[in-house]
């Protein structure tokens, strides 16, 4: 099947967000330094430390989406270690004008960079990056939940 990554007009996208969950794929990047967190520059969770993620495109496999997220948001080629599971996020904010909230169903992969010494190069969705070995109270509830549920880092 052809992958459909076309632009969705704002009003149509907002209707989707207002009426149904959005399927997303997230990558938890694990290295010898710890787990990579990126500081979000856009809603939802603007200013929070999280991991990269994106909506799933029609026709795109979950694994293809994981590789795309790492390439587009971090400029990294990755190996997928395992699927950590499926999570659900309820956001009170959204980056889509006219959609005040967002409900996402997140398929989460634990990944490792193919080239561990390659520098992270963030896209404009993120303003900073850091490696952590534990989730402190200063991190978003969802980040702390992932660390606990999946015994991160590993």
TrEMBL record:
Keywords: Hydrolase, Magnesium. Gene3D superfamilies: Nucleoside Triphosphate Pyrophosphohydrolase. PROSITE patterns: NUDIX. Pfam families: NUDIX. GO terms for molecular function: hydrolase activity. InterPro entries: NUDIX_hydrolase-like_dom_sf, NUDIX_hydrolase_dom. It comes from the Archaea. Its cofactor is Mg(2+). Residues 20-154 form the Nudix hydrolase domain. Coiled coil: none annotated. This is NUDIX domain-containing protein. The lineage of its organism: Archaea, Methanobacteriati, Methanobacteriota, Stenosarchaea group, Halobacteria.
């Amino acid at each position: 099947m052809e992958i459909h990554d076309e632009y969705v007009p704002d009003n149509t996208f907002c209707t989707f967000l207002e009426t149904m969950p959005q399927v997303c794929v997230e990558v938890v990047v694990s290295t010898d330094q710890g787990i990579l967190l990126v500081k979000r520059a856009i809603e939802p969770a603007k200013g929070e430390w999280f991991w990269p993620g994106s909506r799933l495109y029609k026709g795109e496999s979950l694994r293809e989406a994981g590789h795309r997220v790492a390439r587009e948001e971090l400029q990294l080629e990755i190996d997928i270690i395992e699927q950590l599971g499926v999570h659900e996020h309820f956001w009170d904010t959204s980056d889509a004008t006219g959609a005040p909230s967002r409900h996402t169903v997140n398929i989460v992969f634990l990944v490792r960079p193919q080239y561990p010494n390659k520098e992270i190069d963030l896209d404009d969705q993120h303003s900073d990056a850091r490696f952590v070995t534990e989730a402190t109270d200063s991190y978003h509830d969802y980040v702390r939940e992932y660390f606990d549920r999946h015994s991160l880092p590993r």
